[in-house]
Design a protein that fits this description.
The complex is a heterodimer of chains A (81) and B (155). Chain A has two helices and five strands. In chain A, a hairpin with a 2-residue loop joins strand 3 and strand 4. The longest helix of chain A has 11 residues, at 30-40. Chain A has a five-stranded mixed beta sheet with strand order 2-1-5-3-4, covered by helices on one side. By secondary structure, chain A is of the alpha+beta class. Chain B has a single domain, classed as Aldehyde Oxidoreductase, domain 3, CATH 3.90.1170.40. Chain B is elongated and about 50 Å long. The relative contact order of chain B is 0.25. With 155 residues, chain B is of the alpha+beta class. The longest helix of chain B has 18 residues, at 51-68. In chain B, strands 3, 4, 6, 8, 9 and 10 form a six-stranded antiparallel beta sheet that branches. Classes of the chains: A alpha+beta (81), B alpha+beta (155). Chains A and B meet through helix 1 of A and strand 4, helix 2, helix 3 and strand 8 of B.
Chain lengths: 81, 155
Amino acid sequence: MKVRVRLFAVAKQLAGTDEITLDVPEGTTLGKLRLALAAEVPAIASVLPHILFAVGSEYVGDESLVPASGELACIPPVSGG
Amino acid sequence: MIEITTEPIDTQALLGKVCAPEAGAVVLFLGTTRQVTAGRETASLDYECYPEMARNKLAELEAEARKRWPLTGCAIVHRIGHLEIGEASVAVAVSTPHRRAAFEAGQWLIDTLKEVVPIWKKENWTNGESQWVHPGIETPRESSQTADCNQAGNV
């Protein structure tokens, strides 16, 4: 299935794009997706261990499966305020 | 009431939204852009956010604060885009019948906002380099000529 991953801040800067589409099997965990992202976009491999995934507006753990919506976001450590 | 805006924050209007006859205390917190961080001088800052999630997270914070404290009013505004030194990037205003709860709720709101709401700032240093701020990560510096296209923010 196709998974659309949104990127922000330093991840967007390093990748040179605000969105990456990956093709992964259904039932892939986000932990596996993290590895696939690092392989697909080596430029963000160094920051990926610090990034949280969000589906909809909720943070989700690496044990979660890629969502049926096929959409998620990479959230680097936040620095608002 | 929560808002993400590219416009300067109108603190008087914000206070007007939380003032109420039942309130005996109003606390307004402003986060302002600092000129010097760890000995380095900042020329300006750019903020961006993940808009849908940031709005939802801010609304969750307001709802949680209303459960924990007897708020008569609550308003959180975060500004994004380009900010000059000394401008307010965030404002939290709360009102309660008595002052202790207003201080506690205001502090909890800004502390938690800074931990969970997907908003990021980029320091534009006076030497012409720019750098995203991500606690715990050493981020690369880029020259302003090659800075990515976030100058107008990402609403």
